[in-house]
Structure formats: structure tokens, C-alpha cells
């Protein structure tokens, strides 16, 4: 086993009511002027105002950038950075799911390192830590509030850039399930399947280690037990809290073991057609694991066990098949579209999508490396 380094924010708050504690922690850190990075929806429903009140009670001033796109863009980063500089902010608070977190990371990184966000595409390209960032999560899925991954759409090239950099790790992550209670069913399902994808890809990754394995398997169990309930009844706070912990565990796993072809391919679909990331992952997940099963069937059998299946009497390939069937059933039960055809993906784009997927840093730790033709075949199977 190669040596491993484990990345995680230095402080992580999880559980009902921890949002109040977070504002107090920011004050203790000496932070005084925050740029809140969020989206229009969270601003319109009053969640942003709630956070601003908590900050004001701790004598922390704030201004708001709510232009974050569901697939955050290079333009979003530029706009947020301009606002940050205009108000002389000393920290960034991201409020939302993966989109505001990723946008905020881009802003905070460029604020201290200069240049443009595209200069930092790849692994550890920055020289200095970003501005202090506090990530307040409102979804249970992306784990972007605690990772060193930042995904930004380059509008000029129609691709998603993967910025994997220890300097984009927030200093504080906040997962208060009360902020997740209002999430609509579709978003609950998509972000929950994103978390499942993180856990599974980390578990079969070529960079997996005993710490990431433990996190991944526990995440899979909690998602298998709670996602259906969280989707069926958004006010079920036990299911919401379980999903908050599960997505955090999955984040710990992939933040350190990285991912695989599901994400490498989903990033292309998101960048090219502007599709929801979690849905792309959910559709691709069983197809990529069918491809992977030739080299990691025993690991997929472990995942079947974590999902609550009795596979003792099955051999490894049968156990892997049972795992893939369970993934498909969970996706179907929470209302994920059956295939890429439903997402208006076009077969004539497969060549371009596959070429870009093979360049995505997430694919480098897939348990088996694929040819261009094999990636195209997986896209075709997922239609």
C-alpha cells in the first residue's frame, strides 16, 4: 500500500442546531467581514437572511453574492471575487449545496493567489492557502463543504475543470440537518445518490486505504437505510441527520481515496449539457461498476453487504451483480431517470465526452483504466 495523506477541515460541526455555534466560532477566529456565496433560491426563501442575522449578532458584517449557477462557472467566480474585493472581505461563507461551496472555493483561492480560476485546474497548483472559508451545508450529498475538490465549469471550453487542491479545504464545515428539511424530493434524491457514488467510487479506488474503506462502507450502509425515508418525507429529521452524517463519511472517503470514471464521465455531461451532477452520477453508477466488476468484484460484493444484502452464498461475480442490482433499485425507488436518453444526451457527442472524460483527474484512480472505445461503450449502455 502506498503512503497516504488524509485531508479534512480542522473543525467540523454536525447535528441539529450547530449553526449557532458556527457563528460564535467565526467570531473567535477574529473574522469580521464575510462574503456569503449562495444562490437565488436560498436568498429568496430567507435562509441567507437567517445566517446574516446570526453573523450580525457576533459583530460580523456580511455582503451577499447569490448568482451561483447550479454548475458554477468561471464568470460566477469573477463576479463573486469583484464583490469580495469591493467590500474588503476577510473570509468567505458558502451557504448551500455543492454549487455555492465550489464557487466560494474558487473565489477564496483566487483572492489570495491571484490570476484566474482556470490557472489552478489540476492537482495542488496554488502557492498559498485561500481566504478562510466557512462552508454551511444545506444538502446531503456533495460533501464539498469538507473536501479539497472544487469543480468549476469553463464556459469557453464547455467542460468542468477539476481543481483538486489542499488549499481549497474550508477551515470549518457545518452540517445542520434543520437547514436540509426544506430540500425538495428531486434534490434530496440526486444529492443522496451523489453521496452513494462518492462512497462506492472511493471504496473501489486504486488509492483506497483502511481509513477511507471504513468511511465508505459506513456511508453506504447509512444511505441504503435512510435515503428512501429522506426522499419520502423531507421532515423526517432522523433520516435527514443520518444522510448528513453519511454524506460527510462519503466525503472523508473520496477526499482521500479520490474517485473514478463515474465522476470523470458525469463532469463531462454536466459541463456539456448543463445537467444536474447527482442525476448524471446516479445514471452512470451501475454501468461503470459493471465495467469495473472484472477487476474488483470482491469489493463490490463488500458493498452489497454494506447495503444490507445477504450474499454469503454467492461467489464474487454474483455478489458484484447483486450490488449493481441494489444500486439500480435504490435509484429507481427515489425517482432517478432510467437513462441518459431521458436527459437529452446525444449519441453523436460521445466521442468528445469520452475524450474529455479520459483527461479528468477523477478517472486516474478508477480500479481499471479504460480505452476511449470502452468509455464510449459505457455512455452507450447508459442511454
From TrEMBL:
<dbReference type="Pfam" id="PF00465">
    <property type="entry name" value="Fe-ADH"/>
</dbReference>
<protein>
    <submittedName>
        <fullName>L-threonine dehydrogenase</fullName>
        <ecNumber>1.1.1.103</ecNumber>
    </submittedName>
</protein>
<dbReference type="GO" id="GO:0008743">
    <property type="term" value="F:L-threonine 3-dehydrogenase activity"/>
</dbReference>
<dbReference type="InterPro" id="IPR056798">
    <property type="entry name" value="ADH_Fe_C"/>
</dbReference>
<feature type="domain" description="Alcohol dehydrogenase iron-type/glycerol dehydrogenase GldA">
    <location>
        <begin position="10"/>
        <end position="177"/>
    </location>
</feature>
<comment type="similarity">
    <text>Belongs to the iron-containing alcohol dehydrogenase family.</text>
</comment>
<keyword id="KW-0520">NAD</keyword>
<dbReference type="InterPro" id="IPR039697">
    <property type="entry name" value="Alcohol_dehydrogenase_Fe"/>
</dbReference>
<dbReference type="InterPro" id="IPR001670">
    <property type="entry name" value="ADH_Fe/GldA"/>
</dbReference>
<dbReference type="InterPro" id="IPR018211">
    <property type="entry name" value="ADH_Fe_CS"/>
</dbReference>
<feature type="domain" description="Fe-containing alcohol dehydrogenase-like C-terminal">
    <location>
        <begin position="188"/>
        <end position="383"/>
    </location>
</feature>
<keyword id="KW-0560">Oxidoreductase</keyword>
<dbReference type="Pfam" id="PF25137">
    <property type="entry name" value="ADH_Fe_C"/>
</dbReference>
